[in-house]
Amino acid sequence: MQFSSSLLENAVNEFAKLPGIGKKTALRLVLHLLKQDTGDVQHFSEVVARMRSEIKFCQRCFNVADGDICSICANSMRKAEMICVVENIRDVIAIESTQQYNGVYHVLGGVISPLDGIGPDQLNIESLVHRIEKEKTTELIFALNPTIQGDTTIYYIQKKLEANPATASPLRITTIARGIAFGGELEYADEMTLARSLQNRLPVERYVR
Fold this sequence. Notes:
This protein is an alpha/beta fold. The protein has eight helices and seven strands, in the order H-H-H-E-E-H-E-H-E-H-E-H-E-H-E. The longest helix is centred in the N-terminal third of the chain and has 17 residues, at 38-54. It is elongated and about 65 Å long.
C-alpha cells in the first residue's frame, strides 16, 4: 500500500495495530477522520487519551471504574451476596446487556491455561477467596467460557473453596447452563441465550469432573 503522506501512513499503521483492524479498514477510518472537523478529531483523541490515563480497575471486583469502586459494586440495589465470576470485562458487559442479573461480579483476568503459561497465581483468584470470606457470599456463579481452560479454572477454584473451612459452607456454587455451546465465547452469544443460561444455572458438580 503506497502513501503520498508519511503522516497518513503513520496514522494507518497505528489504527492497524488494533485487534480485527486490517490495513484497508485502518485506511478507511483514517480517511473518515480527515473529513471531520478538526475540533471533532481533537475531541476524539482527547477522549481516548483521557480514558487510557484516568480509567481505573475496581478494587473489589476488578471491573473498569472511574473511581476506586465500580458503579456495579457501589450500587446498593445489587445483591452483594451473589458473585458472578467472569474471565474478562467484555463478559461483564455481555451479561449486563441481558438485564437478567442483579448481583455483583469478580473479573479473574483470564483462565488457567498451562500451555499459555497462565497459572492460578496470575489470576484474581486469591482476592475472590478473600471476598467470599469477608462478604459472606451465599452463591458463586461461574460464567466462564465453556472450554477446557474454563472448566479447569472452575474446578481449581471449587476445590480451593472446599478446602477452606471459611468458604466451604453454606456457599452455593453454580454455573451458567450449557445453552452456551462448548468452545464458544460469552461475548458472541446472543442476549436471549445468555439470559437463559444465567436463569437455568446448574450446580458445578453436575458437569465439572
